[in-house]
Amino acid sequence: MTPFVAPSLPSFSEVSAVLCLLLIFLVPFAGAGLALINSGLGRSRSAAHAMMGALCVAAVSALVYVVIGFAWQGVAARPDHALTIAGKSWGWIATEPFFLRGLRLDLSPSALIILLQMFSVALAGMIPLSSGSDRWRLGAICASTALLAGCTYPLFAHWAWGGGWLAQLGLNSGLGRGFVDGGGSGTIQVVGGVTALAITWILGPRRGKFSAEGMPAALPGHNVVLVLLGCVFAGIGWIGLNSAGAMLFLSVEPGRVVLIAIDTTLCAASSGLAAAVVTRVRFGRPDASLTANGWIAGLVASSAAAAFLKPAAAVIVGGVAGILVVLVADFLEFQLAIDDPGGAVSVHAVCGVWGVLGVALLGDAGVSVAGQWLAQLVGIATLLGFIFPLTYGLNWLLDRVYRQRVRREGELQGMDLFELGAGAYPEFDIHGDDLLQR
Amino acid sequence: MTPFVAPSLPSFSEVSAVLCLLLIFLVPFAGAGLALINSGLGRSRSAAHAMMGALCVAAVSALVYVVIGFAWQGVAARPDHALTIAGKSWGWIATEPFFLRGLRLDLSPSALIILLQMFSVALAGMIPLSSGSDRWRLGAICASTALLAGCTYPLFAHWAWGGGWLAQLGLNSGLGRGFVDGGGSGTIQVVGGVTALAITWILGPRRGKFSAEGMPAALPGHNVVLVLLGCVFAGIGWIGLNSAGAMLFLSVEPGRVVLIAIDTTLCAASSGLAAAVVTRVRFGRPDASLTANGWIAGLVASSAAAAFLKPAAAVIVGGVAGILVVLVADFLEFQLAIDDPGGAVSVHAVCGVWGVLGVALLGDAGVSVAGQWLAQLVGIATLLGFIFPLTYGLNWLLDRVYRQRVRREGELQGMDLFELGAGAYPEFDIHGDDLLQR
Amino acid sequence: MTPFVAPSLPSFSEVSAVLCLLLIFLVPFAGAGLALINSGLGRSRSAAHAMMGALCVAAVSALVYVVIGFAWQGVAARPDHALTIAGKSWGWIATEPFFLRGLRLDLSPSALIILLQMFSVALAGMIPLSSGSDRWRLGAICASTALLAGCTYPLFAHWAWGGGWLAQLGLNSGLGRGFVDGGGSGTIQVVGGVTALAITWILGPRRGKFSAEGMPAALPGHNVVLVLLGCVFAGIGWIGLNSAGAMLFLSVEPGRVVLIAIDTTLCAASSGLAAAVVTRVRFGRPDASLTANGWIAGLVASSAAAAFLKPAAAVIVGGVAGILVVLVADFLEFQLAIDDPGGAVSVHAVCGVWGVLGVALLGDAGVSVAGQWLAQLVGIATLLGFIFPLTYGLNWLLDRVYRQRVRREGELQGMDLFELGAGAYPEFDIHGDDLLQR
């Protein structure tokens, strides 16, 4: 925990490696949680499509990441392509073999990183799904996920977690420990969140979302029980994610996992309650969907710093996230006319940025605070100033080649019937839109 | 395993601590299971409210427990407030710091206890939820949960698990090993179950539950698939709960976890089947909801003694629980006119008591059986004679300050629309009550 | 890993045993996944029955396996009943005590095998459930599961995993390492899959499935969201299953678990995508139910060889499974007029056979390939030539004693109302069949 450390891999005892491995196996529950939330917040006529999208994201991202993504992400303390600037070497892309050829897949930290990343790139890929609800074609979902898993994600992950230039800010420039992001508030959540923003802009709002005068209509989620169930699974998955990430990327000792689990839970709890209170105050009643979004926002914000927060600080990080997520969701919808059905931008991008800042603001990492602030800000600037344009550009190009938004009939008919040929609930009577409770 | 032991913390190797930590991470699945069962057994017009209640219980109990609950629960072999009676010192409340300040949150047994308890107090808090279905206000749920997590639960948990007077019955009075309750049949389930009883009494029955002549009407759960799915998750979570509890509070060696998992599964299996057979005999058809209740009752009954039961004894413990749960549910409804929609009193209070007795009756703990019987009975007497009045009194006082039952319109309209402003399934056509299959 | 090894138990360090134990606790999620898929692929009027069937399978199989199943399965390197043929001893049935009496239930490999098998026999039992959807009586489900857990399954499992004659093919006849099936592509999936085939034949097709001219009608699943959610849980459970199985039955070192997890995920991913592409090509649109079946087929195929496949080979195993599952499902329905609502025969039997072959075709086990081919083929021949007739015969006999198919009224009314007395969704409006989207 000394400052100005070189990026390195942890050296694990067998017990630590086994702990880390089993924590990684909790991560898919986070994916299950996000998939449920996406599907539940969308319309019933797109519910199967939403789950099918999640399964395709999981499948495509695992395949693409194994084939090329990891080759470009790599791990710390291994040779990479580096630029020499001001006499220092700055890594920008890894040079591992494609398709994991020749790599030892055992309990070594680098093999564990591959496994964790195979799951967490899927998590990042599920974030834009919820922004694209009810209008994003399945083929485009697969192609866009391939771009994320094969290019955007590994690039930033190399910089932050693979020993690249953001991680080197500590050693090279004396900025604290370099960019610190244990569980991926930036590397997973903001990367996914800015991709979600790009997707909402490229797709445009759902039909009927904004009136001719630009007033947004509420389109309630079709199954709030699934949404809230998803929160519980996400909480379990995030404990695994934050713990395994901190062990592998910050070399924290196994004992910290207890603190991480407590902090992660407290963050989610205070964020969910804060969102409930804020919606109660604003709308007269607590809003279940926004409370769920608050819960997830707390998890997102907890990721970067959970290993370094005192429990009381975790409550603060969560509380702020819960307030932020409601205010920003409103701002995006009313002021910027962005139609983000699942709130992915406010939950994952905005609260991810907040989580990254939390490391410097409230973290207890025992390093020069000013330097750490700067390292975190450089990371955020890179996410917003480089990764966002990159993912926007890639998805814009994809849209030229293969239109990402479904045709008009598809949207009127519902994604399930139009793209999959069958509804999610073929035996249930469903209201027409005019009867929707609003 | 010698008799007349002083309450103590286990001394864990690193491997044991890691095992225990990972077992604790299974516990939230028990919460997910109970939440699904609550929501599925309730009405569709309160389904989102039921899940929202569960999420709020999880959030409030984690926060309150961390802030004050643990301070009063504490762990064994640490200084506490004690009364000296007959020359012996009897601990009644712990004196740990609020907000976990200054505590080491690592792989030590006391830190693992904090983590386990943060999850299991939420489990206890979910029990009354199912008794209050369709009429308990969200604000009251949060306040009542705070009383449970901040007062009732930690008090009894100090006595049973924190080295307090019930645990000291072995050393101080020669009563076997003192009160034994590995996974919380008493400390979690009965505490939650008597709170559920208090809540049903304070709230009163649902409108339409009892006719003018006092005959109860069947109000079937709105989604039996979720109810039965919840059973599977609960089973997984309970394995973690029973194992981690036995390791931390009974100092069993890690190898016992295999026995505990087998016993827990056998208990649930035989209890579920017993409930199916009993309802088949009584009503001509096996009842799915009561079979689910039987499954959970088996888990509840398994908790106290799973570490000390031979597999055949586990089958007996479960079978009895499955019969009890059906008979008692009927008795409460028809004889006492208690409206407990999810059956929380029969499942958690009654079968929890049965589980506590099972330690003395069938357990294999190698101690003076008569003394152990007495210790278990003293524990049960305390739960029914002290904890029940306490939780009733606290909730009665709360009801004076903040009415716990929703207003009449709320109940007619459904909790979702009235309290949350939106239904759980806004796109689905729902029957009026008159068309309900009964 | 030398060839021609005698069947033996692994010798675990404490860390390995703890890892294996915790992996086993993931297996019930596979059961939850299959239960969700079964229920979602069936009709809404049988949805509670499907879940109730799954819970009963879990309960009955755990009880029966503990009481008699394990006694006949046993573990390697312990005395069993053996036949001496050509001067070699060939084990055919184990001789362990009933009800686990006197066995040490701790972290020893044999105790871990008992625990794993208690869960995986339930998995095998859930496979026929999906073939019998909408017409298989609950009592018959329980009885048939008892036959599986008490006879068919333990018999083959003794041969393959308990040191019996299939495992001895390596040492006795020089056939590679003997029959190799790490996670149960044959021992769990094919055994379940051929039982499913027997059940479909004994029950006959659902009313309305085939027209007078023999043309099958599509009867879409009632809840595709649950089906796809089930895939995620199955994926998590299968990682546990494949890893624990390989550790216990193939003595692989703990480090292989990382490879197994990557291979399992890649298999599911490529199989799911392959099924989506094949249905897209054949029907113009990707089919969500068949994609889910493809995902599960990939998991099924991964089980036998996951510990020995390079990642690229895992992608091939999965891709072939995904193509097979669609083509075979069509063939069974159109050519053989088999009504298998959940596709259990193509998913579990056919892709299970493919997984068993994969060991010889693509596995990297470092043994004489010709001998290994022969060992795998002998295993498959035994499954199809002995276990299938055995399970058919047992279920045919059962059908004489206790008719397995529900009466005509039951099928018209729906299994939920007829057998359980209440529907799964009593408050929702459900279409009549004539309005079903097809």
Verbal overview:
Three copies of one chain form a homotrimer. With 438 residues, chain A is mainly α. Helix content of chain A is 64%, strand content 3%. In chain A, strands 1-2 form a two-stranded antiparallel ribbon. The model of chain A has no long low-confidence stretch (mean pLDDT 93). Chains B and C meet through α1, α8, α9, α10 and α11 of B and α1, α2, α3, α4 and α15 of C.
Kindly list the characteristics that best describe this protein.
homotrimer, 438 residues, mainly alpha, two-stranded antiparallel ribbon, 15 helices, globular
Low-confidence stretches of chain A: none
Strand order of the largest sheet of chain A: 1-2
| Element-by-element helix/strand order of chain A | HHHEEHHHHHHHHHHHH
Structural class of chain A: mainly alpha
- Secondary structure: number of strands of chain A: 2
- What oligomeric state best describes the polypeptide chains here? homotrimer
What is the overall shape of chain A? globular
- Tally of helical runs of chain A: 15
Proportion in helices of chain A: 55-70%
Name the beta content range of chain A. Answer: under 5%
What's the pLDDT, averaged over the residues of chain A? 93
The largest contact between protein chains, plus residue counts on each side, is:
A-B, 61 and 56 residues
Report the major sheet of chain A: 2 strands, antiparallel
The span between the termini of chain A is: 53 Å
> What's the gyration radius of chain A in Å?
21 Å
